[in-house]
Automatic annotation (TrEMBL):
Belongs to the polysaccharide deacetylase family. Is involved in generating a small heat-stable compound (Nod), an acylated oligomer of N-acetylglucosamine, that stimulates mitosis in various plant protoplasts. It comes from the Bacteria. This is Chitooligosaccharide deacetylase.
């Protein structure tokens, strides 16, 4: 049994209502669970079951293409009380694209996800993460000016490496213990992540960590957006649905 670093009595922690990235202030022993790139049939639903069994919620940064391909699964994520954000339409490296193409891909992703989630749970939240964490000053500033909450990463599990589930668990725990809190990045598209998550959650519970549920300050999609796109479903000059 690992030594108890913190003194939480329940893995489920507080709900943090966020209107901007500056609002994400975690206390020692608090973590936010995030999952990128889904939803993925055969993987995402098992991750949802594990989260539910441990009484915690996560933030899922979905790809518009995946939400569109698997709409019922995307809706299930939201209906189970998890928060859904945007991760672009097809996971392109936005830093290598023209400004307009990058903004188009972000807007297209938001449109696809918002359409799929219409009426499900809290709908699309304003949370966004750059694929590969690759960004430019222009893109980040544009997101922030559009009242989009950019989610950075404090602890990257690197669950995409071809390693065992235990390797990922030990690396992630080491990094988490060194920081004492933070936003953890997983991906709900890998079997090793499905396999490791129950053990990982048991381990952080044993160490006294609590999982913070991230929610937008105003329910549903809110704020304005400077993102404009010339893509299917989004007319040039009109705001994307963030």
């Amino acid at each position: 049994m690992p030594r108890r670093i913190f003194h939480g009595t329940s893995l489920a922690g507080r709900t943090l209502e966020v209107g901007s990235a500056a609002d994400i202030q975690l206390k020692p022993g608090e973590v936010i669970l995030t999952f990128d790139d889904g939803p993925r049939p055969g993987k995402t639903e098992h991750i949802l079951d594990t989260l539910e069994a441990h009484g915690v919620k996560a933030t899922f940064l979905m790809l518009g293409s995946q939400a569109k391909a698997h709409p019922e699964l995307a809706r299930e994520v939201a209906l189970r009380g998890n928060t859904v954000g945007n991760h672009t339409y097809d996971h392109a490296d936005l830093a290598k694209m023209s400004r307009q193409d990058a903004m188009d891909d972000i807007a297209r992703g938001a449109t696809a996800i918002a359409t799929v989630l219409d009426g499900a749970g809290g709908g699309l939240s304003p949370f966004f993460r750059f694929p590969y964490l690759a960004q430019t000053g222009f893109l980040r500033t544009s997101m922030l000016q559009g009242d989009v909450v950019v989610l950075d990463v404090d602890i990257d599990s690197k669950d995409y490496y071809a390693e065992t589930a235990d390797d990922v668990i030990q690396r992630t725990l080491k990094r988490l213990d060194a920081r004492g809190s933070g936003i953890i990045l997983f991906h709900d598209i890998h079997q090793r992540t499905v396999d490791l998550l129950p053990v990982f959650l048991d381990e952080i519970a044993a160490r006294g960590y609590t999982v913070v549920s991230l929610k937008p300050r105003t329910p549903g999609v809110f704020g304005r957006s400077v993102v404009t796109a010339s893509v299917a479903g989004v007319k040039t000059g009109q705001p994307a649905p963030f």
